[in-house]
Fold this protein.
Amino acid sequence: MTIADVARAAGVSKMTVSNVTSGRVGVRPETRARVLAAIEHSGYQVNPLARALAGGRSRLIGITVPSLSWPYVGEIVQGASQAAEAAGLDLAVFTWPSGQPLPDGLALLRHLTGGLLSILPPDLEDESIWPRSAPSPPQVSVGGPGRYQLLVDNYGGARQAAAYLADLGHTRIAHIVGATDTAPHDAAERLRGYRDELHSRGLALPDAYVSPGTYHERSGLDAAQALLRLPDPPTAIFAANDAMAVGAVHAAQDLGLRVPHDLSVVGFDDLPSARAVRPNLTTVRQPLRDLGRLGVLWLGALARGEQPSSPHILPTELVVRESSGPGPSRFKGVL
Amino acid sequence: MTIADVARAAGVSKMTVSNVTSGRVGVRPETRARVLAAIEHSGYQVNPLARALAGGRSRLIGITVPSLSWPYVGEIVQGASQAAEAAGLDLAVFTWPSGQPLPDGLALLRHLTGGLLSILPPDLEDESIWPRSAPSPPQVSVGGPGRYQLLVDNYGGARQAAAYLADLGHTRIAHIVGATDTAPHDAAERLRGYRDELHSRGLALPDAYVSPGTYHERSGLDAAQALLRLPDPPTAIFAANDAMAVGAVHAAQDLGLRVPHDLSVVGFDDLPSARAVRPNLTTVRQPLRDLGRLGVLWLGALARGEQPSSPHILPTELVVRESSGPGPSRFKGVL
DNA sequence: CGGGTTGATTTTACCGGTATAATTTAGCGG
DNA sequence: CCGCTAAATTATACCGGTAAAATCAACCCG
């Protein structure tokens, strides 16, 4: 079933059929009806491959993600998905594990000229990964390097968290750092924000209060356990993501501490699970769905020849729930 | 940069370049080297679109999923992803919300003849959704209808769970049913397994013990709350998935009950989060990654002309952790 | 009633590859 | 050194569409 078959059946030229299927104007209603009937009757469907090859464009956009079992990523994709649907675009998701070479599937995307949205890309600039002089569809990078980048205010968010805990009266605030391999930028910025905020308030910051993690729940548990066994343990822990914050809560509970009474815990992300956990997690909300949504919008703008101002940094928002409370010093003052 | 440019630069015909890039034999090493040099020098990359259009095949396979923020789905995709990589295939993920019409992106896939793996497809057979007489790439369905289906033994898994709880001495075992819209088959089968097992043991099964849910944590919480407030509350709850089981645990804790001492809870899925929750969840493990892996393997087999025996039903496995314990009747017997 | 428009439709060429058949080249025995 | 065969290479056609230019028809007006 090709366009030629339909044309023959309808008694018109291929081009007229093409004009009908592409919704172009300048086809007599009567002719259009005949073509439509022939299409209906034959069950014909345009071949998007041929269309993209000949037409030089396509309604398919690609999105690359480091992993799909990371809920964080799912949220972004969900946002992108909705925006794509609203814009009448199709979204194909490709996993591109960080550090890996470019999968061949991406070669397809590069020729499918709808555009490419990369979540935490290994490195969009690195020529050893992404061959140079390749035809480049519009590309937008989320949380990584690139010509057009969409970022979250990790630094500001971390300061918000630290400031919030300090305002509650906590003076011994520890931090569990995120993974420095998969998303080096984010982890480093959150650490910097935390450091700067404590510093600006003249709070002590022993080296032992900065504990490395991997973004996984287990690493948060281990790190918190070590922190809480310190001779001078923290009364609040700011974890670089929600999963590690949950781990920290569990570590505290294992040691017989109550959250938030004995230990305040603040996370980062505000994934849906932050609300499905006991106690509900106080956390720094990242606008993940907006990230995906904006990415698709930018792709659309780029296709129209517009140039979004890059980088664009989205603000975070502190969401106070049940895992955080007044610090011990504040209590003492009240009593 | 097209194949013609490379051919000109290397002083050979397009066809020779094609033979080199496709790894076909019958090219003199010396010629091959010259072509390779020209490719290297120009940064040429084959256009997979043109190749698929002309050659009638492709190494790209598609996978459709109802949603990407469902962790359940992420696991399957992860499995498929690994298998695809191992097989040298590229995997593109398309979201196809249940009940929705077929996204255009799938039209692309249908012409990119690598094959299609559908997770919980709305209905692969329904012609109003998936137009008939379309060129059909090999299609495998996971957990849904279709010519080649890969299923999990939901019925058996539910019986395992119910049997386990009964063996522990529980006699009042309730069930929180899964969503009947998104994955009607799974929810119904789990309910049936639960029913049959209790029945075969002559255990009472009041209507009130079967409570509807939506697979979300919140619905599990609500359902469990209602169950526990019954005049004759259950001592064990089998939830149709892990999220609702977590909700049930929370409901119990809210009412001052201890899990597993006062209430045993068993889930279904064994997602990574089942281990990151307190108490660790006893649950029926679904081989989700295997499902994805097998799906890709089947696609490969179909491409080679082999015919996997369908449907194939994968067994489940009961994973006992901390959320379940002996029933009260057993205790009484011992005392 | 002929020339100028406008609108609908078709013709021709091409997108960037591959299949197949035809052609050239190389190798070999006699 | 010739004829024959196998290997390497190339010419041609085609995959299924679209772009742009060309054609055709109908209409308007002086």
About this structure: The two ends of chain A are 83 Å apart (CA to CA). Chain A has three domains: 3-46, 60-152+289-314, 154-287+317-334. Residues 2-4, 14-15, 18, 21-22, 46-56 of chain A lie near DNA strand D (CB under 10 Å from a C1').
